[in-house]
Amino acid sequence: MNPDVPNDTVRTWLIESRNEERLLTRAAKMAIDAGVADALVRRIELEGQLAVDALVAGLDVLDLPGEQRMLALSAMHDKLAGGTGTFSVRPSIEGVVERRDEEDR
After folding, report:
1. Residue range 67-72: average pLDDT?
2. CB-CB neighbours of 87 under 10 Å
3. Mean per-residue pLDDT for 80-88?
4. Which residues on adjacent β-strands are paired with residue 80?
5. For the residues 72-79, what does the mean pLDDT come to?
6. Whether residue 52 is found in the same domain as residue 70
7. Please, is 73 exposed, middle or buried when counting C-beta atoms within 10 Å of its C-beta (0-12, 13-18, 19+)?
8. Which residues contact 83 (CB under 8 A, 6 or more apart)?
9. CB 67 within 8 Å of CB 95
10. Could you count the other beta carbons within 10 Å of the beta carbon of residue 71?
11. Same domain, 25 and 56
């Protein structure tokens, strides 16, 4: 028997050990990737909240009347949601804000 060549039983366990190491490596990589993804989501949420807080603070400083504030908030919301519509205040007793899409022009 050659001491440099493991017997069949040892080879079987070595193969099993390597397979287990591969599985553990994959699991560790998946855990790290999940942690990184979670951190990115939290960062983007925080940046979004900071942007919204800044916009609302800017509106507070302007001290706009209710209908103009609603118009500005509606336009910001539409733009952040990916919309392309424009907004205007409809002259009425209620001061309702309406959205006019580009198609209506």
Report:
1. 87
2. 19
3. 72
4. none
5. 85
6. no
7. middle
8. none
9. yes
10. 19
11. yes
